[in-house]
Amino acid sequence: ACPQSFVFFVFGASGDLAKKKIYPTLWWLYRDGFLPEHICFVGYARSQLTIEKIFQNADKYMKVHDHERDLYKKFLELNHYVCGSYDKSEDFDKLNHEANKISQHTSAHRFFYLALPPSVYGSVSELISTHCRPGAPGWVRLIVEKPFGKDLQSSNILSGHLSKFYAEEEIYRIDHYLGKEMVQNIMVLRFSNRIFSRVWNRDSVAAVKIIFKEDIGTQGRGGYFDEFGIIRDVIQNHLMQILSIVAMEKPRSTTGEDIRDEKVKVLRCIAPIKSENVVIGQYLGDKESKDSERQLGYLDDAGVPKDSTTPTYAQTILYINNERWDGVPFILRAGKALNEKKAEIRIQFRDVPGGMFDENGSKAPLARDELVVRIQPDEAIYLKVNTKRPGEMSYSIEETELDLTYNERYRGVKLPDAYERLILDVFMGSRINFVRSDELQEAWRIVDPILTEIDQKKLPVVPYKFGAAGLPQAFDAAVKHGYVFTG
Ligand code: BG6
Predict the structure, then answer these.
(1) Rounded to whole angstroms, what are the CA distances from 418 to 87, 172, 375?
(2) For labelling, which of 178, 191, 306, 478 has a CA lying 20 to 30 Å from the CA of 421?
């Protein structure tokens, strides 16, 4: 057998994330020829399992086509499983020994993917570093999943712990939104189009909205969710990451450090969110719905305490105190159990000054221009503009769209899954799309005080029905801060 020069470890190999995302992604990357030739994979978890059983459980997510069966078999042969604890030195010695044996190599490069509950991050990361590092010249890359702590303090403790055992360059903190096509496109849109770069500031922009909506509830994941709530689950990470790319200054280059330097700089200009700029809500079941899932409210989820006030919806409005953005509201809104699944960014431009178009004798305000980046579903960029209503004799105006819908313009182009891009980035050693520890710290600093107030139940939790478009209180607050609904 050929010595393997890369070993990819999956910690938490028996868990949900491994089954639904990590193993399928590794298979697709292998199938498409993106992985190095000499590689093997070692799953690790506490349960007495076999690699066959793990792949049986993951089977429906792997999407293996009939003509790929032989290749898939080869992939399976590269996979192994070791069972052990998350806190005993001897188990990590055993793992190290097994990995050396499997790869026939003591200095193969090693990837460690921690798909684990946060309670064991500390011990596992330490034991990997002390027992499972390869001999020189082999290197280590540690891939970690959120939650990176629960608040500023716990996140700093975790970061401090990791930094004792790993150099920052060895750590890849995943925020899977950074692997999405449209999030990756923001930089190109901003910095390769003069038409946008000139207006990307407070002189022209009235408000920015970053929205995340889901049409599903917690679906039995309530036990986990209840400890976190929507701000920690989605806003502190995904939406704040998007905000930093939308608002940052132009990086000096496309290297990971230059980009992350600019992202963190803009986060530093944001004061902690004030409670008067926050609306939170929790969903109730819709008893009239024909869909049995929609009949269930958040409190009906078996893992959720009956008196929980954890928010499943939140809107936070932030301001960036720098020359480019002073006074422009950034409205971050996220909710579960709403009427649709959608994630988008809306850059709304200011009113046109000096109106000249007369509609019905009154100078009606024109609709504002708006640039929309639809992250999902159905990726698109469109610009809402005013145009003369076609065929009419008078100057009557209507709003329309300059529309780049990917399905139409790029029909047939496969957009890789976020995890495919990110795991490939880890292989290539590219850290652009991973969160640096200072970014993480700034994002926590911004949300930390409001999380404390929410945890202490100081904010009213507005109930909303499963399937609602959102909370009227949130829409009103957005309008109060200067956002105008354009329809
Ligand atoms: C995860 C959150 O980070 O993102 C989930 O923990 C959420 O609650 C998910 O459902 C959404 O990801 P996507 O890619 O489906 O928008």
Answers:
(1) 31, 15, 12
(2) 191
